[in-house]
Amino acid sequence: MEKIGSQTIKFNNPPTILSTASIVGPKEAEGPLAKYFDQCLDDEFWGEDSWEKAESKIIKETVNTAISKSGIPSEQIDYCFSGDLLNQCISSSFGLRELNIPYFGIFGACSTFVEGLILASILIDGNAGQFVLSSASSHFCSAEKQFRFPLELGNQRPPSAQWTVTGAGACILAKDGPGPYITHVTPGKIVDKGIKDSNNMGAAMAPAALDTLITHFQDTGRDPSYYDAIITGDLGYIGKEILTELSGSRGFNIKDNYNDCGVLIFNKEAQDVHSGGSGCGCCASVFSGYLFNQLKSQAYKKILLIATGALTNATTAQQGESIPGIAHAISIEL
User: Fold this and answer.
1) Does domain 2-174 have CATH number 3.40.47.40?
2) pLDDT score, position 84
3) DSSP 167
4) In the prediction, which pLDDT does 147 show?
5) How far apart are alpha carbons 27 and 43 in whole angstroms?
6) Cβ(146)–Cβ(260) under 8 Å?
7) % helix, strand, coil for the chain, step of 5
8) Residues of the chain where predicted confidence (pLDDT) is lower than 70
9) Which of 78, 129, 268, 328 lies deepest, with the highest CB count within 10 Å?
């Protein structure tokens, strides 16, 4: 591998995405992407007695499904990266504690899934492993309980608010294989423009997405037309509009091939999700389900996936802090 430009890594032997898996909740099952997920749940508890236990079960079964689909015995997988939104990443660590694979718990808020793919790709191209797993999850009910208000209160949500996806996605990366390949990664910088409204995460994260987007194009010498699709995850409707306008003002027109995981996963007219989806499981499940299918069918041959995250928690919000944003990008090509 080699560093190009200011912060992009180009892989000399790009790792291949061997298999993916995704499991989502009942609201996501009512959305337009339902047929692309490996499993859609009938209820938020999935037979467990808490939402947190349900989320751990979701990521456990998603990872097991990805391993099964890869055809690689779990003992041959060198490392596992996983993360979620709950304090100290308990969904991942509790869900994967029986996996018996060297484990890295990571956190990048909603950018966690792509953060894991970046780290996994570096290990593989650096000859530190042959097979590496990356996964992420979120759960609407557990996230509301931790970050906002108990569901029993029935608080009203402003139009700018997003709906945390109940779901998980997992990928097995391999040193060799038929593709699609992760050819470039652009880790992002923390960008904070002073947004304090925790019900408007799209506005808080869009500047970080812009910074990483422009950096990727400058480092690689590419422009938006190089990609069949540029996908953020997950700015929602408001953040998507902000990023489109900001990138256009900087000379990068992404209108023709740009979309967002938080926009794709729900039907805005039929489902009450306000500004769209969010959460670690949003980008993870949309990529592992829908987008990977588009790549394998060659409907898309080049995707720039930019996962965005709001680096905040309940304490910083109560203390009046602003919301720092982060965005990590990967180039996936056939």
Assistant:
1) yes
2) 96
3) E
4) 72
5) 9
6) no
7) 40, 25, 40
8) 148-156
9) 328
Torsion of CA 280, 286, 289, 293, to 10 degrees: -140
This prediction's pTM: 0.96
Among 48, 28, 47, 53, which Cα is nearest to 38's?
A: 28
At what angle are helices 201-220 and 236-249 packed, to 10 degrees? 40
Residue range(s) in the chain whose domain bears CATH number 3.40.47.40:
2-174, 181-333
3-state class (DSSP) for residue 155: coil
The CATH code of domain 181-333 reads: 3.40.47.40
**What's residue 155's pLDDT?**
65
What pLDDT does 132 receive? 98
* Alpha helices per DSSP H over the chain: 26-29, 51-70, 90-95, 112-125, 140-147, 201-220, 236-249, 261-264, 280-286, 292-296, 314-318
Cα 132 to Cα 34, 47, 70, distances in angstroms: 27, 30, 11
Taken in order 226, 126, 325, 23, the sign of the CA dihedral is positive
Q: Position 334: which residue type?
A: L
Q: What b/e readout covers 153-178, taking b as 16+ CB neighbours within 10 angstroms?
A: eeeebeebbbbbbbbbbbbbbbbebe
The pLDDT value recorded for residue 285 is: 98
Residue 291 DSSP label: I
pLDDT of residue 154: 57
Encode 2-34: b = buried (16+ Cβ within 10 Å), e = exposed: eeebebbbbbeebbbbbbbbbbbbebbbebebe
> Which single residue is written with the structure tokens 């990483």?
212
For residue 135, what is the enclosing H or E element? Answer: strand 131-138
CA-CA distance, 312 to 327, in Å (whole number)? 14
SS3 assignment, position 79: strand
| pLDDT at residue 150, as a whole number | 61
User: In a 3-state reduction of DSSP, which class is residue 114?
Assistant: helix
